[in-house]
Design a protein that fits this description.
single chain, alpha/beta, Rossmann fold, 2 domains, six-stranded mixed β-sheet, 17 helices, 14 strands
Length: about 400
């Protein structure tokens, strides 16, 4: 009997990738999430749903996004060939709209009235507000006060798109607390609300569902790269917070003979609280309804985390990312704040592309890898553009210090 392809094998029916995943939910939400899973497996595979989503991607999102050979950056590094999958050119400026339009379309089919979610860097919030406007749904976005200050342009965009932005003022006031706040609000009215989780995290079926919606990135990249070069890439590189952009790219190549690098935020250092490198320094634990690898205090509670990139500032990682790393299919590597900022400016200078700080982590590692592998190709998922970050970067890391 032929072995089923990886994407048809994982997760299993209970939402597990090996021992990671599942759905750890309060009793009153168990049936809600089972209904979402059933709807996704039926509606999500129907001809009408698929055709409508394809139409949205082509005529509204502007897909496919291109693969681009970063010639000047490659020459500057002096090593392996660096290519960029330009998700920064996707409508709203990041990969997030790929799953937000899918989730909103599913919510619309289910008759939900309102979308609710968390956001860190604001890219998921902007994408979900966009999807809500497209389908005529209400939208509520929970965002930590620290991130509201750092990512002010995205806060304005969300409000202009009609979303209600709820500031989160407890705890670290960043992404983890935003998830807590949004989930608490969702529990008050799960019949009418659809919680559109912003990454490959959360209870089953969201890690699977978000991966599937994001898989368009890898599907396109595989075909485009082969058309450009006649080969498949030797190496894949993507930043990982929760891991949605990474799974989008990685999903098409898991069974291909290439090396895959999951780039985590090393922040200011290796001490607990200085970084958000879950795969590198974490251990098994349950957070936000799923079992994965997470950064923990001695009592098992989520540890404080830090990254210059708000979208990577999360103390855990998607269960599929944990599984692939523990199976040695991916390599967990880390880039610190300063390396990410330098890559941010290098991409500006040599390619005329302003990347999101999240994406700059992947670019920074690709530049390192290019020196180690001078005759190989490296495909980076440039997951977002840096419009949201320019005010913060200009103030905290002035360009005259880097250019």
């Amino acid at each position: 009997m032929n072995k089923k392809p990886y994407l048809q094998t994982f997760p299993n029916s209970e939402g597990y990738f090996g021992k990671y995943g599942g759905a750890f939910l309060p009793p009153e939400l168990i049936e809600q999430f089972k209904d979402i899973n059933k709807a996704y497996l039926t509606i999500g595979n129907s001809h009408n749903f698929i055709m409508e989503l394809r139409d949205i991607r082509k005529h509204y999102q502007g897909r496919p996004t291109p693969v681009y050979y970063a010639k000047r950056l490659t020459e500057y590094v002096g090593g392996g060939r660096i290519y960029l999958k330009r998700e920064d050119l996707n409508h709203t400026g990041a990969h997030k709209l790929n799953h937000c339009m899918g989730e909103a379309l599913l919510a619309n089919y289910l008759g939900k009235k309102k979308l609710i979610a968390e956001t860190g860097a604001g890219q998921h919030g902007v994408a979900l507000a966009t999807a809500a406007a497209y389908f005529g749904l209400e939208c509520e976005i929970h965002m930590g006060e620290v991130d509201i200050e750092k990512e002010h342009p995205n806060v304005i965009r969300m409000k202009m798109l009609g979303a209600k932005v709820v500031p989160v003022s407890f705890g670290g006031r960043t992404l983890k607390e935003a998830v807590d706040s949004a989930f608490e609000a969702f529990m008050k009215d799960p019949e009418n609300l659809f919680y559109a989780i912003g990454s490959v995290v959360g209870p089953h079926p969201f890690p699977m569902m978000v991966r599937d919606f994001q898989s368009i990135v890898g599907i396109e990249a595989k075909e485009q790269f082969f058309e450009m070069t006649g080969n498949q890439p030797d190496n894949l590189v993507a930043c990982v917070g929760g891991g949605s952009n990474a799974m989008g790219l990685f999903s098409a190549f898991i069974e291909e003979p290439c090396e895959i690098y999951a780039v985590e935020p090393l922040g200011k250092g290796t001490k607990l609280g200085e970084h958000a490198a879950s795969l590198t320094y974490g251990k098994e634990g349950v957070l936000h309804g799923f079992n994965s690898i997470m950064l923990q205090n001695e009592d098992g509670s989520p540890a404080p985390v830090h990254s210059v990139a708000s979208g990577l500032d999360y103390p855990s990682v998607g269960p599929e990312q944990a599984y692939l790393n523990r199976e040695n299919r991916t390599h967990a590597v880390a880039i610190d704040d300063d390396e990410a900022i330098r890559a941010f400016y290098d991409l500006c200078k040599y390619e005329g592309i302003i990347p999101a700080l999240e994406s700059a982590h992947a670019v920074a590692y690709a530049m390192k890898l290019a020196k180690e592998k001078p005759y190989e190709s490296i495909l980076v998922n440039l997951s977002g553009r840096g419009d949201k970050d320019i005010d913060f970067v200009e103030k905290a890391y002035p360009p005259e210090n880097y250019l």
